[in-house]
């Protein structure tokens, strides 16, 4: 029971880590790589300083993508951990 919450929390902080805890290596790598790519795009555009000043929609979309990856990864880690540890 506690394992699934730990997996979800790990994936919420760094997408992919909860999947690794559940031994889903490829899925964890995919979440992590997606997060790193989106983060790199944000950093390259120095979005964190301009997202609230110029109202640029692509910056907002990249931030929304990062949030969506974290939520999706956490939900997947929770669900996968429930299936793994139910047996």
Outline the structure in words:
With 87 residues, the protein is mainly α. Helix content is 80%, strand content 0%. It has one domain (2-85). It has helices spanning 2-13, 17-21, 25-44, 47-50, 57-85. Helix 1 runs antiparallel to helix 5 (57-85) and helix 3 runs antiparallel to helix 5. The radius of gyration is 15 Å and the shape is elongated.
Which series of helices and strands comes N to C?
HHHHH
Individual helix count: 5
Based on CA atoms alone, the radius of gyration comes out at: 15 Å
* Uncertain segments: none
Distance separating the two termini: 12 Å
Mean pLDDT: 84
Main beta sheet strand tally, sense and closure = none
Structural class computed from helices and strand pairing: mainly alpha
How many β-strand stretches?
A: 0
* Shape estimate: elongated
Please give the share of residues in helix: over 70%
How many domains?
1
Q: What portion of the residues fall into strands of 2 or more residues?
A: under 5%
The gist of it:
The protein is mostly helical. It contains five helices and no strands.
Task: Looking at this protein, list some descriptive labels.
87 residues, mainly alpha, 80% helix, 0% strand, elongated
Indicate the topology.
Layout (H helix, E strand, L loop, with lengths): L1 H12 L3 H5 L3 H20 L2 H4 L6 H29 L2
Helix pairs in contact: 1-5, 3-5
């Amino acid at each position: 029971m506690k394992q699934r919450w730990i997996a979800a929390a790990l994936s919420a902080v760094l997408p992919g880590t909860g999947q690794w805890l559940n031994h889903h290596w490829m899925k964890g790598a995919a979440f992590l790589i997606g997060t790193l790519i989106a983060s790199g795009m944000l950093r390259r555009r120095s979005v964190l300083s301009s997202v609230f000043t110029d109202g640029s929609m692509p910056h907002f979309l990249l931030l929304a993508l990062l949030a969506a990856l974290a939520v999706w990864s956490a939900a997947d880690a929770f669900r996968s951990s429930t299936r793994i540890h139910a047996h």
